[in-house]
Amino acid sequence: MRRRLTVRTLAVSALIIVVIGIVLGGLAVGIDRQHRAGERARHSQVVIATANLTAQRLLAVQTTLRGFLIRGNPKVLADYRAVRESLPAAALELEGLAVDNPGQSRRAQEIHRQALAYVDTYADPVIERTREAGVGAGRAFAAAHDGSARADELAASIGRFGDVERRLSEERAKTADVASDRALLTAGLGFALCVLVLVLATAYVARRIVMPVGRLSAAASRVQRGELDVTVPERSGDEIGRLGAAFNAMARALEQSRGELESQNTELEMQAIELEERQVELTEANDEARAQRDELEVSAAHLAAEKGRAERYGAFADRLAMARNAGDLAEIALSTLAAAAGADVGVLYTEDWREDSRWTRAAVLALDPAPLAEFAPAGGEGAGARAVATRSVVVVDTGVELRVRTGLAGETVVRWEVHVPLRIGDRDVGVAALGGVTEAAFDAAEADTLQRLAAQAAVALTESAALAQRNWLSQVNAAVLDCVREGIALVGLDHELVFANTAMERLAERLSMPIGAAIGASRGDASADDPETYFAKWEAMLADTDEPTADELEISGLVLERYTAPVDDDAGARIGRLVVLRDVTREREVDQLKSDLMATVSHELRTPLASVLGYAELLRTRRLEPEARDEIIATVHREAKRLSALIDDFLDVQAIEQDRFPLTREPFSVTELLQEQVRTFAGQSVRHHLTLDPCDSPPIAVGDRGRISQVVANLLSNAIKYSPDGGEVGISSSCTAGVVLVAVTDHGLGIPLAEQEHVFEKFFRVERGPAARVGGTGLGLALAHEIVLAHGGRMGFESTEGAGSRFWFTLPTE
């Protein structure tokens, strides 16, 4: 029975531990279930992503296969080989991810089989047939084996697989949510049970221990005050009960002893009462007067000191607030700390947001800054590092002849040092090293003042550094955004323009409209056709706030790609929408140009090929007279040369675009070249008369004679073609210092004024008037222009519709 209270206390503690253990175990089980459910849901997302990747690889195989069937380009074949290997690989990866589900595993195996069958039995044979027999044979083989149906079947299998996996993902996500809810419920119930057990345990301890001990404490206090008749209840036989019994016995013994002492001291007390009363009165009066005087003196000194410190702190805060930059703040902080410490020299080190490992020298007082090194806050040595580590003021009495170079008196002996850390909360931001060169020592009582001043300086320096860093980051962000070619803008929910980069501003200037109207966020004249519909599309984008959008606009003659995405702040609140505009006008023109090129190439190559094939078939199937045979052979040869010239033009265009346009630079006679070209073209048309007007002194140019011959031949050929009624075609040359100018003049159709700015563009041909009926690829003048520019010359023309044209170019001479 003696240890009954101890046993009960241990039992209550054990009960609390058991309850907490049960709660934690249940919570751990719930969290584990939630984790497994979440892992299964994430695995489904990975499987869905892999299925999407397989579909993309299938589309890539189809795209490259079609591109090779259209153009037969070896580069496209290289692309096909790359994506052809990736499609079965993606299907195999999908099969490996789906092994945990029998149904999905069977579907993934079927997808893998279909992917292998598609590339092995259709795509590869089509490529081989195209390489061996040509594009036409490849297309015929592809049409015969219906590869589109196989691809569609494979895409459908991937789609069904993805649909099933998405349903599994949704079910697993719901399972994860249920597990999370159960874990939260278990945590809540366990917390409530723990609180209940703790409350009951607290009540038991208070009733069995705290309250009896409190009664004993109160009884002891009464005994201390002289109330010896005090007793406490003795209600139990445990430790507290035995303690109460012992206390009651002690109180009874003290009461008995006090009665005996009182009877003995009564007489003496009566005799000393009068003297004691008088002495007490005098002593109390003297003590009261002395205490009042001391209190007044201490209060006055304390108030004066507090007032001085408060004035110093206030003045220091005002000076820091008036500083404009970090350098001024550091100078003010160092001079104020030095004045408070009575120091003559000093240096202040502060952290630099550009450098984490070292603090830079921010300010120097009366010292030569050259020998002062940087300060390492982590792992450094010396009193400064010790002040930072201990976060306290460190005073050092040098005791040796330590000399430093000051800015006023050369070398000076430092008598003492004090190092003050600059801190904000638990963060160290700098340290001030101060020194005295006089005999007076540092007053240790100023340490608290130095720490207060250092804390003020630390706050100001940190705020200044944070502002500098923010300004720098803002400048970097602005510079990056202004360097991109796409127009970028941020529009608020109220259609107000929040930000626009330089590219967006330039784009708005090109469109001659405000930025908000250009991107559709305001009802400006953004679309000449239907501005309200244009603005309604922007409203629809804002309504679909959680998804990015992409569309294409045509405004004021420009084609723009518009991409928008919602923008949230750090708290997750919606602040607006980001808009990116990209000018794709040139790309669309290039696409159209490619289509025109295909049509032009098809037409221009088909004509000589048809002649060559037709006459070759005639020679193969009929016996002809020698004269007819010679005429046919000459026609075939002429058309073959025309076909070769067309191919050469296309190859030259490709070489120019790829910067692979070689030139052989040698001196040659310009007059001899012109005479040669006139003789060549003089016999091509009986209705045209070619004249040559050369320079008086034959000029010698430096360049590629063959390429310059190509330029002259193109100009003469155009002059003859665009003078269908015949007439005179003149070629002349004129010489000046270091330059020869060659000009070809005709009196034919001329070029319409509206078309003249496009004359030197590749594949350009006049689309209206009589000139539109003249055949050609539109490459000749573009190639001639590039050849002349590559020689360091210039090329131009003057033309009047219906009156003829004059094309000229210049070349440098020796």
UniProtKB/TrEMBL annotation:
<dbReference type="InterPro" id="IPR005467">
    <property type="entry name" value="His_kinase_dom"/>
</dbReference>
<feature type="domain" description="HAMP">
    <location>
        <begin position="207"/>
        <end position="259"/>
    </location>
</feature>
<keyword id="KW-0175">Coiled coil</keyword>
<keyword id="KW-0812">Transmembrane</keyword>
<dbReference type="GO" id="GO:0000155">
    <property type="term" value="F:phosphorelay sensor kinase activity"/>
</dbReference>
<dbReference type="InterPro" id="IPR004358">
    <property type="entry name" value="Sig_transdc_His_kin-like_C"/>
</dbReference>
<dbReference type="InterPro" id="IPR050736">
    <property type="entry name" value="Sensor_HK_Regulatory"/>
</dbReference>
<dbReference type="Pfam" id="PF00672">
    <property type="entry name" value="HAMP"/>
</dbReference>
<dbReference type="Pfam" id="PF02518">
    <property type="entry name" value="HATPase_c"/>
</dbReference>
<keyword id="KW-0418">Kinase</keyword>
<dbReference type="InterPro" id="IPR003660">
    <property type="entry name" value="HAMP_dom"/>
</dbReference>
<dbReference type="InterPro" id="IPR029016">
    <property type="entry name" value="GAF-like_dom_sf"/>
</dbReference>
<protein>
    <recommendedName>
        <fullName>histidine kinase</fullName>
        <ecNumber>2.7.13.3</ecNumber>
    </recommendedName>
</protein>
<dbReference type="InterPro" id="IPR003661">
    <property type="entry name" value="HisK_dim/P_dom"/>
</dbReference>
<dbReference type="Pfam" id="PF13185">
    <property type="entry name" value="GAF_2"/>
</dbReference>
<keyword id="KW-0597">Phosphoprotein</keyword>
<dbReference type="Pfam" id="PF00512">
    <property type="entry name" value="HisKA"/>
</dbReference>
<dbReference type="GO" id="GO:0005524">
    <property type="term" value="F:ATP binding"/>
</dbReference>
<feature type="domain" description="Histidine kinase">
    <location>
        <begin position="600"/>
        <end position="814"/>
    </location>
</feature>
<keyword id="KW-0808">Transferase</keyword>
<keyword id="KW-0547">Nucleotide-binding</keyword>
<dbReference type="InterPro" id="IPR003018">
    <property type="entry name" value="GAF"/>
</dbReference>
<dbReference type="GO" id="GO:0005886">
    <property type="term" value="C:plasma membrane"/>
</dbReference>
<keyword id="KW-0902">Two-component regulatory system</keyword>
<keyword id="KW-0067">ATP-binding</keyword>
<dbReference type="InterPro" id="IPR036097">
    <property type="entry name" value="HisK_dim/P_sf"/>
</dbReference>
<feature type="transmembrane region" description="Helical">
    <location>
        <begin position="12"/>
        <end position="31"/>
    </location>
</feature>
<dbReference type="InterPro" id="IPR007891">
    <property type="entry name" value="CHASE3"/>
</dbReference>
<feature type="transmembrane region" description="Helical">
    <location>
        <begin position="183"/>
        <end position="206"/>
    </location>
</feature>
<dbReference type="InterPro" id="IPR036890">
    <property type="entry name" value="HATPase_C_sf"/>
</dbReference>
<dbReference type="InterPro" id="IPR003594">
    <property type="entry name" value="HATPase_dom"/>
</dbReference>
<dbReference type="GO" id="GO:0005509">
    <property type="term" value="F:calcium ion binding"/>
</dbReference>
<keyword id="KW-0472">Membrane</keyword>
<keyword id="KW-1133">Transmembrane helix</keyword>
<feature type="coiled-coil region">
    <location>
        <begin position="251"/>
        <end position="306"/>
    </location>
</feature>
<dbReference type="Pfam" id="PF05227">
    <property type="entry name" value="CHASE3"/>
</dbReference>
